[in-house]
Amino acid sequence: MAIYHFSAKVISRGAGRSAVAAAAYRSASELHDERLGRAHDFTAKTGVVHSEILAPDGAPERLSDRAALWNEVEATEKRKDAQLAREVEFALPRELNREEGVQLARDFVQREFVDRGMVADLNVHWDFDAEGQAKPHAHVMLTMREVGPDGFGKKVREWNATPELTGWRERWAEHVNQRCAELGHDVRIDHRTLAAQGVELEPQHKIGPAGMRRETRGEDAERAQEHRDVARRNGERLLAEPGVALRSLTHQHSTFTRQDLARFVHRQTDGADQFQAVMSRVESSPEIVQLGQDGRGRERFTTREIMAVEQRMEQSADSLADGRGHRVSRASLAHALDAANDRGMVPGQDQVAALAHVTGDQGLALVVGYAGTGKSAMLGVAREAWEREGYIVRGAALSGIAAEGLEGGSGIASRTIASLEYAWERGRDELTSRDVLVIDEAGMIGSRQMARVLEHAEKAGAKVVLVGDPEQLQAIEAGAAFRALSERHGAAEITEIRRQRVDWQRDATRELATGRTGQALDRYEAAGMVHGHATREDARTALVERWNEARQAQPDQSQVILAYTRADVRELNAGARSKLQDAGELGADHAMQTERGERSFATGDRLMFLRNERSMEVKNGTLGTVEGIERAGEGKEASAQLTVRLDGEEGRRVAFELRDYDHIDHGYAATVHKAQGVTVDRAHVLATGHMDRHAAYVGLSRHREGVELHYGREDMADHRQLVRTLARERAKDVTLDYPTSFAERRGITPENEIRVPERVLREAAAPERERTGQEPPRGIFAGLQLGKHAAGERSAGEHIESAAERGQAADRRLDQPGMFAGVRFEPEPEPEPEPEQSRAPAMRQAPDRLSQAAERYGRAWADTERMRAQDLPVLPHQSEALDRAAAALDKVRPSAAQDLASALKHDPHLRRDALERPGEAQGAQLVAGIDRERGVRLGHNPELKAERIATEWGRLEQAHGALAGWQDKTRGQIEAQMKGLAQEIKGNPQLEAVMRSSAEKLGITQGSSLDRVLREPNVAQAIERTLSRGLSRDYGMER
Predict the structure, then answer these.
(1) What confidence score (pLDDT) does residue 791 get?
(2) What class, spelled out in words, does domain 525-727 have in CATH?
(3) Which residues fall in a compositionally biased region of kind Basic and acidic residues (predicted)?
């Protein structure tokens, strides 16, 4: 299995080492050391499968010889403690063959080291351990001085900086993961520490080649023994506490596969025996729960802890959705709409419908909107209405820059969710029943955090509004909470894109949002906005040049540079800053030690704050311009004091000393993750191999005027590979996505499936019992009411009338012809005693399982139908939601999904209600439709069956007659359907008799094609004669 190892060290003369000897050993060759006057012969060494010198352009030819290269290095360095070379060592994935492994190493060395001016001596070793397992790895010796046509020059000190090593480590992981994905290997490596990955185990030391050889020979091998000791201790802990492995696996993902488990255990155990023991122990743990197969046919598992988390999230969401009491009056909403009209805001019908949805009286409302559809503007109108009613409106987002975007776009005072939770833990800033909490970019929030936030709001009786786009960046932590909740409760959808000012760019954003990344990239390619370059370094250079040209040509426009990794962001920041220095736009440099290492700042520099600080009122991602740098203090207490003018209309200034706050960096470029929620005039994006369609969607939708995309062909060889990389799907899942799990929690478990013990669920729900002092309801869905508050139901549907009326809302006013005509409000209710049922929603009787499952299917079906009605492709998560809903419905009653689909097809009233008023109130209608269609399918209602067949035959006959020429491909498809209907008629004597006796009522005239089918003695003759007579003619069908 692939493992992560990447280390770097310096070969120093002061330690008694020789660069020539080191090179000879790593290449298994014999080299003569001119300084020492002797040869170093390691030709007996085995395992070296590739060895070469890679030199940058302009280097003298002689340096391509290994002996000449390292002897010249030795001769150049005069000091007795000189640093001679840097050695980088990294492990190669075992899943690759030798050719693939060599190419992987070669590409990385060329891009990261040689293209930056280093001469690299690359040697790939393919050793084997005592058990015959391959241990492929690479040794790279690097020069430490710049090189030109005449040889070596001065040393490059920045190559020794810690951030350089950090960047190399991160980019190696990205490089390996991308290449493995391209080659079809389902493996990933992670450069982060175990603590950062949420792994509660002891980190291991790497066993070097020398240690392995000593161990093989039976000699003392301290490093190897330390590694095995750590692995053994970790394995022992996993045997004692298998939950550690499960917590580690579910730190960032709600579900996992057996391969994920085996990969993790393999890294944390010593030897095959301990591996097997730990695997058996973990797989037999009562913590583990089998969910079923994913879309690729792989069995997926979860833990009772993550299942309990998502259960509590679901219960809190349902409780909020059942709550009432945050109604906005007609007068307040009218006032807010008038104010928006006065400001020149003309909302579209999607925004008006979403506004009606979020200002309804339900305690939970969700809004799904494409990037740039004006979600924040809509929330600004809602804020005015809420505040006029006396509600306190608070905003929150996962990142500081997204919180600032929400506040700037809607006027809602906003902060990060982490800072809110921090305050809540200390009893400060807690929510009340008069609060409305608006959470933007909700798709980036994991299940655990979402559960905590919703539970706090539920206890306080507050209203929660979740706004986001599940197709943008996925949650960093485990789960896809926003997508799951929007599927369960429904959401108002805003699809009219307003950010881009050119029609074709709006179409491109819509394509990015709906998974058609290739079509969007083709548009930008045709417009000359996609630029391929030889290397990533060339791409960065060209990007900065285009940014600088645009900045100078249009200084009043806002711009942003985006990349995926911090390392690329740092390089882009340095490039952009050098352009300002060359133009004389920056003051004198002041070197400062920041939290990310040494940086130089000057007056005029763009600066980004990287940590929330309430005393300064800055957030992680806040941007500003340095206006002053002064020295503060004396001697050892000396520090720099910076004065920064923050971005925004107010232009507020903050001053701070670096010793008090050092979480700063240059602010010309940012990561794609920081940019979600940002809007600028122009964006400049660096595409690299670790991006997927979610990151591409965010990066290519930040702009109003235009976007430039740059990539290096060493990362992606051509436009085709660019599309393939940026179109990769990496959506996360939740435990609620699996129909088997749904059935288990309902107590309907197939005989061949694992049943979750009742004890397990009781223990998983212990936090709920501690909170309420009562036993929680059995199972995740027991006692809950599904989907009462989807967009388009009573709260939205009774505020908004028909689509035609909504479309006129931009041209009329409320009480007289105006821009918001068509918006209808519920009458103000008279005060009345609160019913017992409202005070204790948990005591209500839950709808039956069939009704709940039918409602879930109806909501999922409506989502897909609305997309088709707008001529948009159905999103992957919507298709998956419909499939899951169908499977869950069939678990309750076999073939019920087929029957409900048929009912929605044939009953226009049911179809209309499902689209406009989905929810629990419609459950009885859906179940009635299932029962009716089941009767038709089983032959209990032959009259209705006959009517439908006659209608369908007429439709097919008309379509057949409209075809041009017998070679039309569609003709065969239509005839196949007609044959199917004919076979159904002839195979059901009761149905055939009904159709014959009711021919006149059904519109079947004598001599028509359907009449001939009924009169022929057998199906073969009926079909042959009917089709041979030519269905393109009119045979008297009157229907």
Answers:
(1) 37
(2) alpha beta
(3) 212-235, 790-815
pLDDT digits (tens, 9 = 90+) for 724-740: 889 887 777 888 877 54
Specify whether the CB–CB gap between 64 and 53 falls below 8 A.
Answer: yes
864 vs 861: CA distance, rounded Å: 5
Total residues found in the chain within this entry: 1039
Query: Taking a C-beta distance cutoff of 8 angstroms, is the pair 513, 471 a contact?
Result: yes
Q: Is the per-residue pLDDT at 66 higher than 90? A: yes
Choosing among 2.60.120.760, 3.40.190.10, 3.40.50.300, 3.50.50.60, the CATH entry for 307-494 is 3.40.50.300
Measured CA to CA, the distance from residue 247 to residue 244 in angstroms comes to 5
So what's the pLDDT on residue 634? 62
Please work out, in degrees rounded to the nearest 5, the angle formed at the alpha carbon of residue 20 by the alpha carbons of 19 and 26: 85
Query: Which of 128-137, 139-148, 470-479, 979-988 has the least mean pLDDT?
Result: 128-137
- The upper half-sphere exposure of residue 566, i.e. CA atoms within 13 Å in the direction of its Cβ, equals 12
Residue 995, pLDDT score:
84
CA distance 369 to 371: 6
Q: How far apart are CA 547 and CA 550, in angstroms?
A: 5
- Domain boundaries in the chain? 5-191, 307-494, 525-727, 849-929, 942-1030
Q: Is the pLDDT of residue 802 over 80?
A: no
Q: Do domains 5-191 and 307-494 have the same CATH topology?
A: no
Residue 490 has a CB neighbour count (10 Å cut-off) of 29
Q: How far apart are CA 404 and CA 414, in angstroms?
A: 7
- Nearest CA to 621 out of 444, 477, 447, 450 is that of 444
Question: CA 217, 223, 225, 231 torsion: positive or negative?
Answer: negative
| Contact between 667 and 658 (Cβ < 8 Å) | no
**Cβ atoms 491, 354 nearer than 8 A:** no
Confidence of residue 1022 (pLDDT cuts 50, 70, 90): low
* CA-wise closest residue to 422 among 443, 449, 391: 449
Give the C-alpha separation, 144 to 158, whole Å.
10
Q: Give me the amino acid identity at 445.
A: I
890-901 confidence digits (pLDDT tens):
888 888 888 899
Name the residue among 268, 263, 267 with its Cα closest to residue 239.
Answer: 268
Tokens for 176?
């390996």
pLDDT band at 109 (very low <50, low <70, confident <90, very high): very high
Its CATH class, for the domain covering 5-191, is alpha beta
Residue 358's Cβ-count burial label (10 Å; 0-12, 13-18, 19+) is: buried
**How far is 910 from 861, CA to CA, in rounded Å?**
12
Q: Which residue has the tokens 């975007």?
A: 405
Whether 330 shows a pLDDT value over 80: the answer reads: yes
How far is the C-alpha of 942 from the C-alpha of 988, rounded, in Å?
A: 10
Nearest 10 degrees: Cα torsion 924, 926, 929, 931: -60
Sign of CA dihedral 774, 779, 780, 782: negative
- The amino acid at residue 840 is A
pLDDT tier at 437, thresholds 50, 70, 90: very high
